[in-house]
Design brief:
Elements: E1 13-16, E2 21-23, E3 31-36, H1 43-54, H2 56-61, E4 64-70, H3 74-84, E5 89-92, H4 97-101, E6 105-108, E7 114-117, E8 120-124, E9 130-135, H5 145-153
Length: 156
């Protein structure tokens, strides 16, 4: 069942590229932007995350933490982050539990791949409540960055 605005966000407890566990509960008191993306090193995913990297001041100015999440391994994400100089955390959902909790997963994807994160965007307020939710069916589409910014600006 798709998550809705106003619902409590499911916990996130995943490792970043520094091999440090990041949890949503530890980010309580901050605004959080969660961006699920299908696969590191692919064209649309790189475009999406580079857009966030280049506009990171907009996120910082709204006191938001950005988390990029994919089912890639931590090791793949380390290289992806280094090559693209991303200035926000990338988290590995290798076991696919978080993508499933957010109903943001393709159970069957291209080339018979199973369990790949759907491109999705969630804005979570300081109390852990979802204030914006967008799960895209087409991996070629990008999230609505303007709507994400509006949601962030609407959180006090």
């Amino acid at each position: 069942m798709a998550l809705q605005v106003g619902q409590q966000a499911p916990e996130i407890s995943l490792y970043n590229t520094d091999k440090k566990k990041i949890t949503l509960s530890e980010l309580k008191g901050k605004k959080v932007v969660v961006l699920f993306f299908p696969q590191a090193f692919t064209g649309v995913c790189t475009t999406e995350l580079c857009s966030v990297r280049d506009d990171i001041a907009k996120y910082n100015n709204t006191d938001a933490v950005v988390l990029g999440i994919s089912v890639d391994s931590v090791h793949s994400l380390i290289r992806f982050k280094q090559e693209q100089a991303f200035n926000f955390d990338l988290l590995s959902d290798f076991n696919k539990e978080t993508a499933r909790a957010y109903d943001a997963i393709y159970e069957n994807w291209i080339l018979d791949m199973k369990g790949v994160a759907k491109r999705s965007a969630f804005v979570i307020d300081r109390e852990g409540v979802i204030r914006y939710a967008e799960v895209l069916e087409s991996p070629g589409d990008l999230p609505n960055f303007s709507a994400i910014q509006q949601a962030l600006e609407g959180i006090k």
